[in-house]
Task: inverse folding
């Protein structure tokens, strides 16, 4: 009988140890899971913050390596990974490593040294070591929570649906090489009559520094069939009221701008007349001229706001595209009219210009625009946090292409 009691005590002791182990696994395991999420969020934020500073060099501004380090450390701390050996409040056992990476994600230098000219992003590795509570019973005194992230920047090759893109195209002649902060006016200025080589087909009569775009007809040599979910050729009209629906913000009853894909620009990107033409990306239907109600709507809805204007390199006449079916397969169009009218055009989109619209109440230049037939704004070389990017595309300083910033992995 005494032996049985002794056996019971041993069994209870083992049961208590097992129960403690299970409780410890649950508690410390939960802490580990939470720590991993926290460290991953910190790695994501740190990589984005450091990479954003790299874009300061796009316009020839020197990037201070110390500022990149400080940004990474600061944003990691904002997300719970405090790295500062001299600060008693710092997270114990926190480790941060970071490297510059090129367009192929190859590490090309340690962050803190001089920024390489080929840097297109930053890779960050964080690790947080914490002491266990109950798992010590099983001999596990520490748990380590790692986190890694890579952020990249590059030209935006696609604007997603719903972006703040206005249906006003401007030629690359106007904005390529324009320094940020430059105030400019988009108005009629016989673009195609001056640069006839940039008008394909019989579009030589197009006489505008801009094109009013019809987002209901966007032709793409890849997405043109009836069953393609990215087909956007619906109705070939440039009616001012139809265009106005894409200017009015969607939250106020306007229509959502469809996704826009960029084509390859002339290489090298420069104001000169291109010698090599590319037929990839989107061709957006539009026409030059004046649309007073649409111009006024831009000032009414977007004063002091940043918007994006599609930038084109060449203008194609519809009959030219129709006659060259091998290069431009006939699109499926809901209305049945395959190509637009011959006095309208298709603008080959190669970039986006970030423009801050003027405010009639505070800007004298804007106020003097009494007929509301021009777009007055300030060019911005803006980094945006949306859009699909391609880090491998060369960036030619302060050009018209909007540069995007994203978590790569």
Result:
């Amino acid at each position: 009988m005494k032996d049985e009691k002794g056996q019971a005590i041993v069994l209870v002791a083992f049961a208590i140890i097992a129960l403690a182990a299970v409780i410890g696994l649950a508690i410390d395991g939960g802490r580990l899971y939470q720590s991993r999420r926290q460290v991953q969020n910190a790695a994501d934020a740190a990589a984005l913050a450091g990479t954003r500073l790299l874009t300061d060099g796009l316009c020839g501004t020197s990037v201070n390596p110390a500022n990149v380090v400080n940004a990474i450390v600061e944003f990691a701390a904002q997300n719970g990974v405090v790295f500062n050996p001299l600060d008693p409040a710092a997270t114990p056992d926190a480790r941060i490593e970071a490297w510059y990476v090129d367009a192929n994600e190859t590490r090309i230098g340690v962050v803190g040294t001089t920024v390489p000219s080929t840097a297109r992003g930053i890779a960050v590795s964080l690790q947080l070591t914490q002491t266990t509570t109950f798992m010590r019973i099983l001999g596990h005194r520490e748990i380590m929570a790692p986190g890694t992230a890579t952020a990249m920047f590059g030209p935006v090759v696609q604007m997603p649906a719903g972006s703040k893109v206005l249906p006003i195209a401007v030629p690359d002649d106007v904005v390529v090489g324009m320094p940020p902060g430059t105030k400019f006016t988009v108005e009629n200025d016989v673009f195609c009559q001056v640069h006839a080589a940039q008008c394909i087909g019989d579009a030589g009569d197009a006489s505008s520094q801009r094109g009013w775009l019809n987002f209901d007809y966007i032709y793409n040599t890849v997405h043109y069939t009836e069953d393609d979910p990215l087909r956007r050729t619906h109705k070939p009209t440039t009616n001012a009221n139809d265009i106005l629906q894409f200017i009015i913000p969607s939250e106020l009853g306007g229509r959502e701008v469809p996704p826009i894909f960029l084509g390859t620009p002339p290489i090298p990107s420069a104001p000169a007349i291109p010698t090599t033409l590319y037929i990839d990306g989107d061709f957006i239907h539009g026409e030059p001229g004046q649309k007073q109600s649409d111009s006024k709507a831009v000032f009414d809805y977007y004063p002091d706001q940043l918007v994006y204007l599609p930038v084109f390199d060449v203008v194609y006449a519809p009959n030219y595209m129709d006659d060259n079916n091998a290069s431009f397969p006939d699109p499926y169009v809901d209305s049945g009219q395959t190509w637009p009218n011959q006095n309208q055009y298709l603008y080959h989109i190669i970039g986006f210009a970030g423009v801050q619209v003027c405010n009639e109440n505070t800007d004298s230049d804007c106020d003097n625009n009494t007929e509301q037939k021009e777009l007055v704004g300030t060019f911005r070389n803006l980094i945006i946090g949306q859009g699909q990017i391609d880090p491998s595309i060369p960036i030619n300083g302060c050009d018209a292409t909007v540069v995007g910033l994203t978590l790569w992995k």
